[in-house]
Design brief:
Elements (H helix, E strand, L loop, with lengths): L1 H8 L1 H10 L34 E6 L14 H8 L14 H4 L2 E6 L7 H17 L3 E6 L5 H8 L5 E6 L20 H7 L3 E9 L9 H8 L3 E3 L1 H7 L1 H12 L4 E6 L21 H9 L6 E7 L10 H26 L8
Parallel strand pairs: 1-2, 1-3, 3-8, 4-5, 4-7, 5-6, 7-8
Length: 345
């Protein structure tokens, strides 16, 4: 691995890798043709990623921690298909991620669909391997439990900050007589494990009904900054962006985006829809507000294709994933080049 990492720092080798790890051109092979990969990128086995690429797009097809409507295990496959509609340059920010970083689809984590704890171990092991090899993960779920092992893999050396866009706080304690590992508990578990710093954690768009007020009270007692949807509506998205940037600061930060943060009028294909959410346009504006942060990874979760046979929700998810990729690529390139632009709007 040391030899691979040395290769990664060689300027000539880096330029060659950027040329290799480009999406398949829609001008050469029509976008309805070819094998589906995230953003039409080359496929690379995870074991080959360290020293070869900068950002790995990882599918995590797991919904074994879902407590109501399933289907997110099929999310990565349909998001791959929808992502063929993404092109090379972000129209809103002009970021061209593939000119900044070598990116590839490293396939799906080999989950165990009938064992939550075994699946979490597998996710943590693969993300840790990528992280230790200098590769940033952009993961596509899957239900929201996948964020927990990812945070464990990335936050082992220092607790992370978190930007969490969601309809739900996901800081519940237990479900169904003591089950602690569900898609409604990942961030409580991560805080308990010491891999997530609640005082550098911000939740944006929270609005869903709760089983108990304890979920919100516990989060606030830990120091989590909750910008619920009512506050976003009252003060505006630019305010939410500014406040979130203040909370996470310049420290290493993870970004998690639950598709149910978007109103079901725009993204109905999700297990726990909540009315009164962001429009798809507002979601783009929100995500684009987090450029130049010290981001070390991201995920987009909870797309459930069986609940939206039109494929529209997967398209929203693919679009958000591309926005996240642009954020990660820019953050990675700035760190590599030593530019001092972190946390500058």
């Amino acid at each position: 691995m040391a030899q691979n990492l040395q290769k990664k720092t060689d300027p000539a080798a880096r330029e060659q890798r950027l040329d290799v790890y480009q999406p398949l051109s829609g001008m050469v092979v029509p976008r309805f043709a070819g094998i589906s990969t995230f953003m039409r990128l080359p496929y690379l086995a995870p074991t080959q990623a360290p020293g070869e690429i900068d950002i790995a797009l990882v599918g995590i097809p797991f919904d074994g921690a879902t407590t109501n409507r399933p289907g997110t295990r099929l999310g990565p496959r349909q998001v791959r298909e929808a992502s063929s509609l993404m092109r090379l340059v972000n129209y809103g920010t002009l970021v061209a991620p593939y000119d900044l970083c070598a990116c590839a689809d490293v396939g799906d984590v080999p989950v165990n669909p009938i064992d939550v704890q075994d699946t979490l171990r597998r996710i943590e092991a693969e993300i840790a391997y990528l992280h230790q090899g200098g590769v940033m993960p952009l993961s596509i779920g899957g239900d929201h439990i996948i964020s927990y092992p990812i945070l464990r893999a990335l936050g082992g050396e220092k607790p992370l900050g978190l930007i969490h866009v969601d309809a739900h706080s996901d800081t519940g304690d237990t479900y169904f007589g003591g089950q602690k590992l569900t898609h409604g508990t990942p961030f409580r578990r991560a805080i308990e494990d010491g891999v997530l710093d609640p005082k550098r954690m911000v939740q944006i768009g929270i609005r869903g009904t709760m089983y108990s007020a304890d979920e919100r009270e516990w989060a606030l007692s830990q120091g989590i900054r909750i910008i619920d949807m009512e506050e976003v509506v009252e003060k505006g998205i630019p305010y939410a962006i500014s406040e979130a940037r203040r909370v996470v600061g310049n420290g290493p930060t993870y970004f998690t985006f639950d598709i149910d943060s978007i109103d079901p009028a725009f993204a109905p294909g999700t297990g726990t829809p909540e009315i009164g959410g962001f429009t798809s346009r507002e979601a783009l504006q929100l995500v684009r507000g987090f450029r130049h942060l010290n981001l070390i990874g991201a995920d987009m979760v909870e797309v459930s294709p069986p609940l939206d046979q039109s494929g529209g929700t997967a398209l929203v998810g693919a679009s958000i994933a591309f926005e996240l990729l642009c954020l990660l690529a820019e953050a990675r390139a700035e760190r590599t080049s030593g530019e001092s632009r972190l946390n500058v709007v």
